[in-house]
Amino acid sequence: QVQLVESGGGLMQAGGSLRLSCAASGRTFSTYAVGWFRQAPGKEHEFVAAISWSSDTTYYADSVKGRFTISRNNAKNTMYLQMNSLKPEDTAVYYCAARKTGIVTGPQLYDYWGQGTQVTVSS
Fold this sequence. Notes:
Elements: E1 3-7, E2 10-13, E3 18-25, E4 33-39, E5 46-51, E6 58-60, E7 68-73, E8 78-83, E9 92-99, E10 112-113, E11 117-122
Parallel strand pairs: 2-11
Antiparallel strand pairs: 1-3, 3-8, 4-5, 4-9, 5-6, 7-8, 9-10, 9-11
């Protein structure tokens, strides 16, 4: 069982930066692939980024590539999403998620989810 708790969301002006954190409980977290998703009002979960358990593989949505960076620290059971050059269209609730095998983009393929953290970007 893995429990995930996100933090670091908030209100930011366009062009600014935020770093989201996802703290995990469970001794096997280091063996899980993890990802970030976001959900804007009235829309479905959108894949943002994912990272393999060893950090040797990362994958990004085209909409955030070059602006967002995903990373993890298995010793601290924590995953991060550094968000730079924020845009108003990045406004959403951001969720971290984990799964036992390789990274994928479909939210339905992730087994564990956090409660989400709100990110609001003003123009």
